[in-house]
UniProtKB/TrEMBL annotation:
Superkingdom in the source lineage: Bacteria
Species of origin: Flavobacterium procerum
UniProt KW keywords: Signal
Signal sequence residues: 1-20
Stored PROSITE patterns: PROKAR_LIPOPROTEIN
Lineage: Bacteria, Pseudomonadati, Bacteroidota, Flavobacteriia, Flavobacteriales
Protein's name in the database: Lipoprotein
Length: 249
């Protein structure tokens, strides 16, 4: 299965109901780290894996265990990318370092996808999920993608900051985009993601003194936190996912 066909198929599954999205950030002592988003659609496969395989053809019925990069895919789609605006091409370039790992089995009722990249500084992550929404434009806006139904496209600008003393995750609503979004589109996204969850798992090199979100769960060594939200909150109230972490001296 070609890279773009595989990615489109996996994104199509991710747009369907009952998925869990997990946003992971690991920060090392020197400020470098790893960012990833895990998409677990296994519950959907358990409910409708056979039907999905039938609808998507013979390739979808085969077990998939694949790893590739957006850079590889963009090389395959270079002619299409060349026709896009310079601004869109620049947004796509931000995604080049992402590696995509996919495991899917109709027999085992399993669907797991991870989008991951290393970073030198958390500043590289500004609006990274919003940039992912440009993937739709590779096929004239018709590419199946979770970003098209809301993932990375929740009308907000997301920023991360880390200085060794504090860490913050802040989404600011883009009022202009919010006004442009059609009501029926919002209702559709709400229906699609009604039973999905968005989980944040962050790992730091220092012990955490306090977190502004009262629902944060700490690891035993107090260097990691986990916060779970409904995907509807991620979509409709992205500011609810804002919080600040303060570290021990």
């Amino acid at each position: 299965m070609k890279l773009y066909k595989l990615l489109s198929f996996c994104f199509l599954i991710a747009t369907l109901t009952s998925c869990t999205f997990t946003e992971n950030i690991t920060i090392n002592e020197n400020g470098t780290g790893n960012f990833s988003v895990d998409i677990d659609g296994s519950s959907l496969m358990q409910m409708a894996g056979d039907q999905i395989g039938s609808q998507m053809g013979a390739d979808a019925k085969k077990d998939i265990d694949s790893t590739f990069s957006f850079k590889q895919m963009f090389e395959q789609k270079k002619d299409s990318i060349a026709k896009l605006s310079p601004e869109t091409q620049q947004e796509l370039k931000k995604l080049e370092n992402f590696t995509i790992k996919t495991k899917m089995s109709s027999e085992k009722k399993e669907f797991l996808m991870t989008m991951a990249m290393d970073f030198k500084n958390v500043n590289e992550l500004q609006d990274i999920l919003q940039s992912a929404s440009t993937l739709q434009k590779l096929e004239g806006g018709n590419a199946p993608s979770p970003v098209g139904a809301g993932f990375g496209g929740n009308n907000s600008k997301l920023s991360y900051k880390y200085d060794g003393k504090k860490f913050s995750r802040k989404a600011i609503i883009d009022q202009q985009k919010l006004a442009e979004k059609a009501k029926d589109s919002a209702d559709m996204s709400k229906m699609i993601f009604a039973s999905s969850n968005y989980i944040i798992k962050y790992h730091f090199p220092k012990k955490i003194k306090k977190v502004s979100n009262p629902n944060a769960l700490f690891s035993d060594d107090r260097k990691s936190i986990t916060i779970q939200y409904s995907f509807t909150d991620y979509m409709e109230n992205p500011e609810k996912l804002n919080f600040e972490v303060e570290f021990e001296k």
